[in-house]
Design goal:
Keywords: Membrane, Transmembrane, Transmembrane helix. The protein is 82% helix and 0% strand. The chain has 415 residues and is mainly alpha-helical. The protein is globular, with a radius of gyration of 26 Å.
């Protein structure tokens, strides 16, 4: 059958045209040109013409902008690599804390995001001031590995992550939709960076092996100069690709969320059964309590990413019920952990670690409660998924605020 005639015959049947396109896009595009020449006045074919040729037009119009953005990304990638290498040199000399490596990457990611969105001057000044103040404060602290200092080192990257979020959201930092986009950006970034990092690791192993064949041991030099530089520069490249709507990560992310949610749920149920079977007690076993909190954080992360990837579709799926089950289980875990922490505080007194863990568990517990109730209403067809996503996005700054409190006050309070 002449495909050209088939397109013409089904001009009034959009379902058939769409099916023909999906079955063989290349053949459809080739046949479409002939059909378009024979029917230049058809509004339906005019829409299809724009659909089939839109990308080529968009790329042609935006080529200078893309080149400019690519050049700026390249400069930032080089700067990130160089700064990270310089910071690592001072870390080797034990002059500064290892956490300073975050300043070789995160400010440059923020710089590219700011360049990409161009926020108001007040946002720019706030970002610059907070990055500088944080860097100065960190390096004024004594280089000691006490409990309060370790807590500061752990929480500072979380606070800096919040600053990167401010750079991403720009003038729309109050908008839930933009905050939701930032969570998705993190997932897409992680997937893309992981894929490229695996390729880099394979290249590094191949390089080291090849040099070993000629009797040269370049492992230390290669790690200190090439790997560190590449790891930092790659973060800027990944940021550039994600913000340019690279389809690879965006297509993979929803599937990862859907696959991991049921796997995490099954693993968590089996884990809790095993815990009860062996008689582990988080009230008395400090290490087990820490592991319990680690499980809680992992479940919270998976749940949040699953919710953000579910979109705004009003139709419920099995993933929604799995997410709700994860939230309930996470609440049970958090309630047990909170009870154990309160018990340890009342029995053994206040320490920086116990206070920090208590604070984060209270925050997570409140966040889970806030997510659970609108999710339950959504499953009961009483509301839409937007309220669930609002419960996620509106709470994000609170985590960054708590991280700032721990990082900036604990080293001073618990000397």
């Amino acid at each position: 059958m002449d495909r050209n005639n088939t397109i013409i015959e089904n001009i009034a049947n959009p379902h058939v045209l769409e099916r023909m396109f999906r079955e063989d896009p290349k053949a459809f595009k080739k046949s479409f040109l002939h059909a378009w020449e024979q029917n230049p006045d058809s509004q339906v074919l005019a829409v299809w013409y724009e659909r089939l040729n839109f990308k080529e037009t968009a790329i042609t119009e935006k080529a200078p902008l893309l080149q400019k953005g690519f050049l700026f990304m390249g400069i930032l990638a080089i700067l990130a690599g160089v700064c990270t290498r310089i910071i690592f040199h001072f870390i080797e000399q034990e002059a500064i804390a290892p956490i300073n490596l975050a300043f070789g990457i995160l400010p440059f990611i923020a710089a590219y995001l700011v360049y990409n969105r161009t926020p108001k001057k007040s946002v720019l000044y706030t970002l610059a001031a907070l990055f500088i103040i944080t860097g100065v404060y960190l390096n004024m602290l004594p280089l000691k590995y006490t409990d309060s200092m370790i807590l500061a080192y752990i929480h500072l990257p979380i606070f800096l992550w919040g600053l990167v979020g401010l750079a991403f959201t720009g003038n729309e930092y109050r908008a839930g939709k933009t905050r939701l986009a930032y969570i998705k950006f993190n997932l897409d970034f992680g997937i893309l960076y992981g894929i490229m990092a695996i390729s880099g690791i394979l290249l590094a192993l191949l390089t080291l092996r090849l040099f070993s064949f000629v009797g040269l041991d370049i492992e230390e030099f290669y790690f200190s100069n090439i790997v560190l530089f590449g790891a930092a520069a790659l973060s800027i490249v990944a940021t550039y690709l994600v913000t340019r709507n690279l389809r690879l990560a965006k297509n993979i992310a929803p599937y990862i969320a859907k696959i991991f949610s049921p796997l995490v749920l099954i693993t968590l149920v089996v884990y809790l059964i095993a815990v009860m079977a062996v008689g582990k007690n988080p009230f008395l076993d400090r290490n087990f309590l820490l592991a319990f909190n680690g499980v809680l954080l992992a479940v919270l992360a998976v749940t949040i990413f699953s919710i953000t990837e579910s979109g705004t579709d009003e139709k419920k799926t099995i993933s929604d019920y799995i997410n709700f089950a994860l939230i309930v289980l996470a609440l049970i875990i958090d309630s047990v952990a909170l009870s154990a922490i309160v018990f340890r505080l009342s029995s053994y007194g206040i320490t920086p670690n116990r206070l920090a863990v208590l604070g984060v568990n209270i925050l997570i517990w409140a966040n889970l409660i806030w997510i659970m109730f609108p999710y339950l209403r959504f499953l009961q067809n009483k509301t839409g998924p937007s309220l669930v996503q609002d419960a996620v996005t509106k709470y994000l700054p609170i985590y960054a605020l708590w991280a700032a409190i721990v990082a900036f006050t604990f080293p001073l309070i618990f000397k």
